[in-house]
Amino acid sequence: MTTSAEPAHAYAGPAILSVGFRPFFLGGALWAALVVAIWLPVLSGTLTLPSAFTPFEWHVHELIWGYIPAIIAGFLLTAVPNWTGRAPIAGRSLLLLFLVWVLGRAAVFFSLWLSPELAAAADLFFLIALGATVARELIAGDNRRNLKLLAVIGLLLAGNGLFHWQAITQTGNGEGTRLGIAAVLVLIMLIGGRIIPSFTRNWLAARDKGRLPANFDRMDAALIAISAVALVAWIAVPEHKATAFLFVIAGCANLVRLGRWAGERTLSEPLVLILHFAFAFVPLGFLLMALAIQWPGVLLQSGAVHAWTSGAIALITLAVMTRASLGHVGRPLTATWPVQLIYAAALLAVGARLVAAFDILREPLLQLSAAAWVAAFLGFVVVFGPLLITQRS
Length: 393
What we know:
Elements: H1 21-44, H2 55-84, H3 91-109, H4 116-140, H5 149-169, H6 175-205, H7 218-236, H8 241-259, H9 270-294, H10 301-304, H11 306-328, H12 337-356, H13 362-390
């Protein structure tokens, strides 16, 4: 995503509906905070949800297919106009798409009062509508080379459909969840592998001479392919020793990619440094998952997977959301102390969650992780909400 002002000069309505990142980043961050804030009393039995999902299923579903698609929508609806030169989706069209996302959240939350099939249809419709919108804009703007991103939306949609079907029929072994997480990780490896070195290079080039990040090349493509093969194995045979072996290779492959991006030279600018921290949780997740497969008595997969979900996914989405919001409203691209506090809270959340996964002070660390997560995402809402709602570019 570039940080140039969005080409929305022809739109004269509310600023919040002028371009996609505004409602979706704000709504997604608020929902991420609410899901975890609600999750703890639900887990303790002091609150009962009107959802047909079990509490665990609802928690997993709403972070993977509630929060993440909102951020993907905000990213794509803002990036596509930069790729095509067309005006962004705005006004009523953007509001309608956002309300489709809200409808999905409400349908899943109140699915105990609806039929599970109806709730699933309402939820799945958002990814279908988003994919159709992005495809239309890319084709109309003669930018077909980026149509490959629709494959990731398709994988997310397939994972969501499988998740609903397995929840309704009480069958399967979490294949839908693993497919959803794998799809997001592939997207991070694809998009992150472009924007992290790009943003790092831009920041370093304006300062002093020295090592610059490597450009995306065939090595990156090969290392992503290795990672994708490992993730396919995880979806199919999550406890097989061969999957652990592939995960070690994938972890090392992504460490190699991270080492090519000169992250050690960005220590003085947290807005850039956080991108490197975020991506570091991709190889860490592979290596921890290999450990969990090989020695489940030491670490469960459910704990190791939080290196990806609470770590890589949460951090890189927050990094993109903060940077894009600053750039598109004309603020300097630097992390002020409130932004740094958002990053610190998110890092504390994943750190506490990973330590808890080793059964060390589990309950207090889970509470700390949840509180820090809520603080990070509510922090984004408080700091950036006024800018997204009122300030034009």
